[in-house]
């Protein structure tokens, strides 16, 4: 995949000889394929899929674990600190994360199509163009971080927790700009199937983050400031590692900085906005969940309550995860084909017309509590195709 001749990620099945009796697909008919040959082909395709999907899954897991590790260490500082960090991560950083991922999905469409067409040199231009747009978006979102306290109070959060979360949020501004650089690089590398490099870089950042968090929070006793500084440093190190890899190991697709990155931004912004709307409903669910259910303090001080809440949600999750298994496939098709605008309308409709109504009925009429929010989220998801269905639990 390093050469100038682009190859598709998954090769099509082709008939090799008459003796193998492999399936030959044309416009009119499908020839019979023996079970053993079919199973062998399925196994080959499965291996090819996991060759790409496996490192991509690990990359997401390692990057998600950065915030998870921070919250774990902060939990030893006190209940208020833990509630504040969880609130900031759920609502404020959740908004920034959702918008950045959505805006970056435009690059997933364009880079995938350019790579499939063999236009490798265009990939670097697309990535730089996405950097310009996402960095501008980060500047626009900066007031959300700066005025996080009044925003959280307006959403109905506890005043004391919102005040601490607001101070912590200001320290987390570098993470927002790291998002703006990280997601375009990821889409750039994913389009070329260079996912193993992302996984190794993300793992290295996670290992360093664990050490820095222990040093700053426990040994140096820097508290929330130390937690924020280490998380920002880890994200910046992750981005720097990926960018260095692009500069030195992606010569065919990266030809240096170009003024073309500032050309034709209007069309790029349009596709980016449509992609962002695809994921916005998930972030709306985050803010509403945080508003309705003030669980952080109680959850982390009463083990029985934790067990009770997990038991209640287990049945819902076991069923909903199975039903949502087809969603990533639909999402990949929509993004790859550039259908973000159409899917955005479907997302908004499924959330406001179906999911919101179901959630209100279960939450207020039948007093289902947290289960109502989960059911609403899943019902909204079943009616749409979105890349970030798991953000409720981020």
Automatic annotation (TrEMBL):
Keyword annotations: Membrane, Transmembrane, Transmembrane helix
Transmembrane regions: 48-70, 90-110, 131-156, 197-220, 257-282, 313-339, 351-368
Protein localization: Membrane
GO cellular component: membrane
InterPro entries: MATE_euk, MATE_fam
Keyword Membrane: yes
Keyword hit for Transmembrane helix: yes
Any single GO BP term: xenobiotic detoxification by transmembrane export across the plasma membrane
Topological relation to the membrane, as annotated: Multi-pass membrane protein
Pfam families on file: MatE (PF01554)
GO MF, any single term: xenobiotic transmembrane transporter activity
Similarity comment text for this entry: Belongs to the multi antimicrobial extrusion (MATE) (TC 2.A.66.1) family.
PANTHER family referenced in this protein's UniProt entry, alphabetically: MULTIDRUG RESISTANCE PROTEIN
Name of the molecule in the record: Protein DETOXIFICATION
């Amino acid at each position: 995949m390093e050469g100038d001749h682009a190859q598709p990620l998954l090769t099509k099945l082709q008939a090799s000889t008459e003796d193998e009796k492999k399936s030959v697909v044309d416009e009119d008919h499908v020839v019979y394929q023996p079970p053993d040959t079919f199973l062998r082909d399925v196994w080959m395709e499965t291996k090819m899929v996991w060759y790409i999907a496996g490192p991509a899954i690990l990359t997401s897991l390692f990057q998600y674990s950065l915030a998870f590790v921070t919250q774990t260490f902060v939990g030893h500082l006190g209940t208020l600190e833990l509630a504040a960090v969880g609130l900031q991560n759920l609502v404020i950083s959740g908004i920034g994360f959702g918008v950045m991922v959505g805006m970056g999905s435009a690059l997933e469409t364009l880079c995938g199509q350019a790579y499939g067409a063999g236009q490798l040199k265009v990939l670097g231009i697309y990535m730089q163009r996405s950097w310009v747009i996402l960095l501008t978006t980060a500047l626009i979102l900066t007031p959300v971080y700066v005025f996080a306290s009044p925003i959280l109070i307006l959403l109905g959060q506890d005043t004391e927790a919102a005040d601490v979360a607001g101070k912590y949020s200001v320290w987390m501004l570098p993470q927002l700009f790291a998002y703006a650089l990280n997601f375009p690089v990821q889409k750039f590398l994913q389009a070329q199937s260079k996912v193993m490099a992302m996984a190794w870089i993300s793992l290295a950042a996670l290992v360093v983050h664990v050490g820095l968090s222990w040093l700053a929070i426990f040994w140096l006793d820097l508290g929330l400031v130390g937690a924020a500084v280490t998380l920002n440093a880890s994200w910046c190190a992750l981005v720097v590692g990926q960018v260095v890899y692009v500069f030195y190991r992606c010569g065919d697709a990266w030809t240096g900085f170009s003024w073309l990155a500032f050309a034709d931004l209007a069309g790029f912004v349009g596709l980016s906005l449509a992609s962002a709307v695809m994921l916005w409903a998930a972030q709306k669910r985050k803010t509403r969940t945080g508003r309705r259910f003030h669980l952080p303090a109680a959850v982390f001080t009463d083990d029985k309550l934790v067990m009770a809440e997990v038991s209640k949600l287990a049945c819902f999750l076991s069923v909903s995860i199975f039903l949502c298994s087809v969603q990533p496939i639909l999402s990949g098709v929509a993004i790859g084909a550039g259908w973000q605008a159409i899917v955005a309308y479907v997302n908004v409709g499924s959330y406001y017309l179906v999911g919101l109504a179901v959630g209100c009925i279960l939450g207020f009429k039948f007093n289902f509590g947290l289960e109502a929010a989960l059911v609403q989220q899943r019902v909204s998801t079943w009616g749409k195709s979105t890349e970030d269905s798991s953000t409720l639990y981020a």
